[in-house]
Amino acid sequence: LRDLLGLWKVDFTDPDSATCELSETIGLFCFSSTAGLNEIKEYDRPVVINLNNQWFTLQQLSRTTARLRVGELTHEIAISELLEAWSGNFTLLCRAPPGYRAPLAPGDQGPAVAWLKNRLMVINNQPQTTSPGYIFDARLESEVRQFQLISGLNPDGIAGVKTWIKINDADDIETPRLNGAIL
To answer: Hey, how many other C-beta atoms are within 10 angstroms of the C-beta on 151?
Structure first.
């Protein structure tokens, strides 16, 4: 996780302090799941993976090779080698609202919902007028669906990790990408 945080320009002098809990205190949400390589490409973020009981940060992916990092060492391996050794488990980081724990849906309220509404207002060049007690209502659900549709996501109206990643992409904040670039 320390190598992944390094790509986000977060430096930890104590490697043991690089945890998901600490990441959340600086506005980065850890998301762990299982996926295939195509879904990892869709996330377009470096991820931490386990290959043969060793942790690596997958920092670049091309059609034929994967670039892995562990500490100061970088390894380039064939995609076929990656697929043979990888179970599909991964962890990625994305920016999410303070206190975010689960996808936001109609009926939710609190700071994360207000943050979502404000981000969509900024992205759509609208004045920010959201009050702290904003509730995820039918209008916000419609705005989320519209944003998801424009962003190439399944327009389910629920703000989950893929939606946050697309919001991050639209925010013009430095974000590491799986192709090695920083957006």
So the answer is: 16
SS3 per-residue string spanning 63-94 = CCEEEEEECCEEEEEEHHHHHHHECCEEEEEE
- Tens-place pLDDT, residues 66-109: 999 998 899 999 999 999 999 999 999 998 887 788 999 999 99
For 33, list phi and psi in degrees, rounded to 5.
-165, -170
In sequence order, which residues have a C-beta less than 8 Å from that of residue 78 and are 6 or more positions away? 64, 65, 66
Count CA atoms within 13 Å of residue 8 on its CB side: 25
Q: For the purposes of burial, counting CB atoms within 10 Å of the CB of 50, is it exposed (0-12), middle (13-18) or buried (19 or more)? A: middle
Helix (H) or strand (E) holding 116: helix 111-123
Task: Give yes or no for a contact between 166 and 147, defined as CB atoms under 8 angstroms apart.
Answer: yes
